[in-house]
Amino acid sequence: MKSQRRVTAVALVLLVVLFAGSVASRRQVDRLRGTESTLEDVLYLSSGKTVKRFSLGYSSLLADIYWTRAVQYFGSRHMQHSYRYDLLYPLLDITTDLDPNLIVAYETGSIFLSQKGPEGAGQPDKAAALVEKGIRANPEYWRLYFSLGFIHYMDRHDYKAAHDAFLKGSEVPGALSWMKVMAARMSEKADDPETAAYLWKTIYETVTDKDVRGTALLHLTSLHAEADIAGLEQRTRLYRQEFGAFPSSWSDMMRAGILQTIPLDPNGDAYKLSPDGSVHVQDPAKFRFLINSQ
Amino acid sequence: MTSRLSAITLNTFREAVRDRVLYNLVLFVLLLVACAPLFGQISIGLERLILVNVGLSSMSLFGVIIAIFVGIGLVSKEIEKKTLYTILARPVRRWEFIVGKYFGLLLTLIVNTGLMTVGFYIALIITAHQLTRADALLLVAIYFIVLQFMVMVALTLLFSSFSTPIFSAIFAFALFVIGTFAEDLKNFAALAHGATKWLASAAAYLVPNLASLNVISQIAHEHGVSGSLVLMNTIYAVFYSAAATAAAVLIFERRNLK
Amino acid sequence: MHAIEIQGLSKDYRVGFWKKKLQPALKSLDLTVASGEAFGFLGPNGAGKTTTLKLLMGIIFPSSGTASILGQHYLDPAIKKKIGFLPEQPYFYDYLSAPELLGYYAQLSGMPAQERRSQRIHAVLERVGLGDTGNKQLRKFSKGMLQRVGIAQAIIHDPEVVVLDEPMSGRDPLGRHEVRELMQSLKDEGKTIFFSTHILSDAEALCDRVGVIHKGELRGGGVVNDLRSNVAGKSEVIFEGAHGVAKVADLLSESHVTGGTVRAIVRSSDLDLLLEKLRQQRVRLIAVTPLQGTLEDYFLSKTSEKTESEAVHP
Question: pLDDT per residue over A190-203, tens digit each?
C-alpha cells in the first residue's frame, strides 16, 4: 500500500533527522554543563551513607561509578594543572562509604589527595584520614599501612607516624618483610634520598593510575638527578682543592682524571656546570621535584 | 487528522485519570510531601531543604513509574481488548494512534505534576510560612521533571510498540537508570580507547540524558540554572522524544497485530 | 460493483523460535460479496475466518493478494468511514460509559460534531437495547451487554458495509435472537453484511450466500437455497424384506439393513420407480419420508473433504 510506504519513509527520515538533532543538542547541553556538573551533586550530599540508603542494595555498583567519577575528575583537573580539587575528597569519601572494601579507592585515592598541587589536591591530612578509614574496614590488607606510612613520610613529614604505620603493617600476617625495613629506615635514615626513592619505586610498581605513575617516575628521576648532582658537586669541590678554582667545563674535570665522560642526567641530557661549581639539569621542567634545581 | 489525534489523546487521558491505581500514586506523593515537615523536625534548620528534596524526588520518581506503568499497557492493552481492531477499522492511521497515545499519557503526567506541584507549594508555605524568590526557582526543577516524562513516555511507547508489557517495563526502567548516569557513560567514553570508546560514545548518545534533566539538589540549594541550559534541555527533550516516537511509528506501522 | 472483492489473499504466519517456519493461515482466497447482500463466512474454529477479517480491516498484512471494498483499495483510509467492524469477543475501555465510548468512535470515524452529539448515540444505544445504561462504566457491563456495545460501535457512523466476527458466539439463546434481529434490520436497510460464524443455523436464517472455509482454503459456497437443494430432493424409504434390496440396489444411494428392516435413501426422482419395484416384489412398505436438506449437511460435506495437499499425500 502506497500510504503505508509513505509513512514508513517519512518516519525513517524523521527518525534520522530527530536523532541527529538530539545528539547535537545533547552536545550543547554537555558543553553548557561542563564535565563536572554531575559531580557537583556531591557537595550537597551530607554523606555517602545517604547515597547508600538510596542505592537499594546496588551500592558496590554505585561505588564503582563514584570511583570512576573520582578518577575522571582527578584526571581532568590534573590535565589542567589545577591546584583546586575541591570535589575529590567528597567523591572518595562517598565511594568508600558505598563500598568500604574498594581498596583501589584508598590506595590510589590517597595519593591523589596527598600530593602537592598541581600533582594532587595537597590535602595530606585528608589522605591519611581516608587511608585510616580503609584500614578500619580492611585491617587484614597490609598494603594500606604502606600507603599510610608513605603519606606520613612524603607529604606530612611525620617520620614518627610513618614509622608506626610501617611497623603496624609489618605485623599483619602476610606482610612482606621490607615493611619492617621501612619502619627501621623511618627512625634512622628518614632523610636519606634512597628511602624516598625506594618508596616511590614501590608506588610506581603497585599503582596503575597513569597520572600517579607519571608523578612517581618524575620523583624517581628527580631523586636520581639529585644524587647525581650531589656527587658531581662533591667532585667540583675536589677539583678546586687541587687546582684552586672551579672547573670551567666538564672537559677540565676529564683532563684532571676526575671524570671519565660527560655526565648525563636520567633523560640523557648533559648536566650544566656553573662557574661557582654548582651543577644543574638542562631542563628543570623535566625534574619538577628536584630541590634547588635552579 | 487533528480531530482524530485529539480524540485519541483525550481518550487516553480519560482512561488513565479514571484508573484508580494512578490516584494511589499521586496520593502517595502528596502524603510524602505532607510528611516532609516531620522529617524536617528531625534535622533542625533543614526543613525546607528536606521538603524540596523529598518532594521533587518523589514527583520525579513516581511520575516515571506512572509513565512506565501506564505506558507499557498503552498499545498491548488495546490489542488484548481488541479495541485497537475497532480503531484501525476506522479512518485512523497507525501513526495517529501512536502519536495520540503519546500526547495522552504526557497530558496525564502534566496534569498529575500540576496537582502535585500545588500540594508541594502548600507544604512549602506551611513549612516556611512564606514564599521567596528562591521558591520560584523550584519551577525550573519541576519543568525539567516534565521534560524527563516527555522522554520516558516516548521510550516506553517505543518498547511497547513491539514488546510485551513485562519486557517493555524492564527495558524502560533499565534505560531510566542508565539515563540517570548518562553523563558518567559519556565520561567513561572519554576515558576509553578503541572499539570500547566508539561503543560507549554511541551508547551515551542513544540513552536518554536524564542526568542533565535532574537539577533537584542544585535547586534545593538555591543555585540557579542558566536560561540557555533550560532552552537546550528543552530542545534536547523534544528531539529525543520525537525520535523515539518516530521509531515507535516505524515499528508499529508494519506490525501484524495478533 | 461488489461491496467486497477479495483476490488471492494469502497469509502465512511465521512460527517457531527463530520465526523461520511458515505456517499458512489463509491460502489464496478469492471471494466477492455483492452490495446489499448478507454473506456468511462459515468454518470451524481455526479455519481462517478471523484471519480473513483482520486482513480486510488492515490489522494484519497479507503475504500476497489484495482486496477492494466498495471499489477502492481496502487499506485506503477514506473507505474506512463506510465500514463498521465488530471483532470477536471484544472488551472495551473499562472506565468509559457507553455514550462516551460511542462518542469517541464517532469522532474517530470523522462524524461531524453536531450529528454525533447525543441523538445518533442515543438512537444507536436504543437500537441495541442499551438505552438505559447512562453513565455506568463499561467494566460493570455483562458479556452480553459488551457484545451489544460492540455492535453499537460498529454501526455508530452508519456504515455501508458491516463486518462482524462471530457476532453470535458466547451469547445466550435470547441474545442470539436479538443479534439476529438486529442484523436482519441492517440488511433491510440495504447494508452489506459480511460476518463469520461457526453456528450454521444463524447463517441459514440470515444469509443470502455463504462461503465455507476450512484449513485456510475456501471449500465451497453459493446461494443458500441452492446449497440446500443439493442435499434436498432425497427421500428416506423404510420397508420390511431384506431380500428385495438386491433388485433395487442401483436406485439406492444408501441402505442399512437391520434384521428384516431396510432403511434406504433414494433420489426423489427415482422414488416412484423404487416404490413400483418394491410393490412388485410384495415387500411391505413401512414409511416414505422426504428428507429436509440443511446447510449443516453441506457444511459437513465440505469440511470433511480432503484438501488438495492431503489428497496428494495421504
Answer: 777 788 888 888 88
A–B interface: beta-carbon pairs under 8 A = 101
CATH number of C2-229: 3.40.50.300
Q: Does A4 contact chain B (CB < 8 Å)?
A: yes
How high does pLDDT run on average in chain A? 85
> Do C73 and A4 lie within an 8 Å CB cutoff?
no
**Percent of chain A with pLDDT strictly greater than 70:** 93
Residues of chain B neighbouring C137 (CB-CB closer than 8 A): 18
Q: Tell me if C85 and B4 make a contact (CB, 8 A cut-off).
A: no
Average pLDDT, chain C: 83
Q: Between the CA atoms of B168, B171, B176 and B182, what dihedral angle is there, to the nearest 10 degrees?
A: -150
Tens of pLDDT, residue by residue over C160-209, are: 999 999 888 777 777 888 888 889 999 999 999 999 988 777 788 888 88
Q: Are residues A115 and A45 in the same domain?
A: yes
- Per-residue confidence (pLDDT) for residue B36, from 0 to 100: 65
Given the candidates 3.40.640.10, 3.30.70.980, 3.40.50.1000, 3.30.300.30, the CATH classification of the domain at C233-290 is: 3.30.70.980
Q: Which residues of C touch B87 (CB under 8 A)?
A: 108
What is the domain count for chain A?
A: 4
Instruction: Give domain status of residue A128, yes or no.
Output: yes
Give chain C as a DSSP string: -EEEEEEEEEEEEEESTTS-EEEEEEEEEEEEEETT-EEEEE--TTSSHHHHHHHHTTSS--SEEEEEETTEETT-GGGGGGEEEE-SS----TTSBHHHHHHHHHHHTT--HHHIIIIIHHHHHHHTT-TT-TT-BGGGS-HHHHHHHHHHHHHTT--SEEEEESTTTT--HHHHHHHHHHHHHHHHTT-EEEEEES-HHHHHHH-SEEEEEETTEEEEEEEHHHHHHHH-SEEEEEEE-GGGHHHHGGGEEEEEEETTEEEEEEEGGGHHHHHHHHHHTTPEEEEEEE----HHHHHHHHHHSPPHHHHH--
What residue in B sits closest to C77 (Cα-Cα)? B91
Question: Which pLDDT score is estimated for C175?
Answer: 81
Tell me the domain boundaries of chain C.
Answer: 2-229, 233-290
pLDDT the model gives residue B184: 83
Q: Based on the domain organization, do A54 and A122 belong to the same domain?
A: yes
Q: How far is A69 from chain B (nearest CA, A)?
A: 7
Residues A42 and A134 in one domain: yes
User: Residue A293 has what pLDDT?
Assistant: 42
More reliable by pLDDT, C233 or B208: B208
Question: Is the confidence at residue C232, as pLDDT, over 60?
Answer: no
Residues A223 and A196 in one domain: no
The residues of chain B scoring below 70 in pLDDT are 21, 36-37, 39-46
With CA atoms as reference, the chain A residue closest to C75 would be A1
Tens digit of pLDDT for each residue in C36-83?
999 998 888 888 889 999 999 999 999 999 999 998 999 888 899 999
Domain span holding position A23 = 1-33
Establish if A189 belongs to a structural domain: yes
Å between C298 CA and nearest CA of chain B: 31
**What are the pLDDT digits (tens) for A117-164?**
788 888 999 999 999 999 999 999 999 999 999 999 988 889 899 999
Q: Is residue A207 part of a domain?
A: no
Q: A224 and A190 in one domain?
A: no
Q: What is the pLDDT of residues C269-311, one digit of tens each?
A: 788 888 888 888 888 888 887 776 667 777 777 777 665 444 4
By C-alpha distance, the chain B residue nearest C161 is B89
In this structure, are A72 and A108 located in the same domain?
yes
Q: Which of A8, A26, A28 to mutate to test the interface with B (most CBs of B within 10 A)?
A: A26
Q: Is residue A292 assigned to a domain? A: no
Using CA atoms, how far apart are residues A54 and C146, in angstroms rounded to an integer?
A: 47
